[in-house]
Amino acid sequence: MKPIVAIGDVHGLEKWRSIVDEHEDCTIVFLGDYLDPYEYITRRQQLDNLRDIIELKKRRMDDVVLLLGNHDLHYFCDRALPGSRYDFQIERFAEAMFNANIELFQYAYQQGNRIFTHAGIQHSWFVDDFKGDLTQPIAHQLNNPESIQFNAMLRLGHARGGRIGKIGGIFWADISELTDPLHGYTQIVGHNRVDDITERCGYNDNKIIFCDCLRNGKYYYEE
């Protein structure tokens, strides 16, 4: 298997370009959130940047993975709650771009016991809320949810403004909620801003690696 690179939340930044150029022999996983920048980036630049990421995927279908985040879903999914910095001036362009290329995106990616999602999977959320099957491939279940399971995937936990006692789904889970990541797996996620790649290990052969630090030029790499 190829070495793997995971690029955290893009949010309009172009730093991914040099990372991709440096790792042409790797599988590249984008962890989602392509729009809604924290800093000033023109709307044209944001959309062009997303378009270039989509074109990269089309050129390298077998070794580029595009995951979706909460800042992507809210532009084209009526069931997704709008996140911060939602931009009404680009919504119709973003919606059209995502819908025209929706087959290129996915919710989760898995290589063996490594699982990539936008925000991460708390073990109790997968078992109790998503009603997943721990004996079956995890990413396949997340990429092919039943309607009620998709509701759980879209859920906000209490840490992000949801109901008390609730844990966020794979688009919204907060770092404070991911205290016991999915047992038996190593997860690589974005969504929660960190200054550098940050690991959290559990007691059930479980680990979660937070990678939302592209703004600092940092990314996940594993041979």
Automatic annotation (TrEMBL):
| A GO MF label | hydrolase activity
Domain of life of the organism in this record? Bacteria
One Pfam short name: Metallophos
Using the record's annotation, list all stretches that form the Calcineurin-like phosphoesterase domain: 3-126
Q: Which SUPFAM superfamilies is this protein grouped with?
A: Metallo-dependent phosphatases (SSF56300)
List the protein's name: Calcineurin-like phosphoesterase domain-containing protein
Record organism: Xylanibacter rarus
Tell me the lineage of the source organism: Bacteria, Pseudomonadati, Bacteroidota, Bacteroidia, Bacteroidales
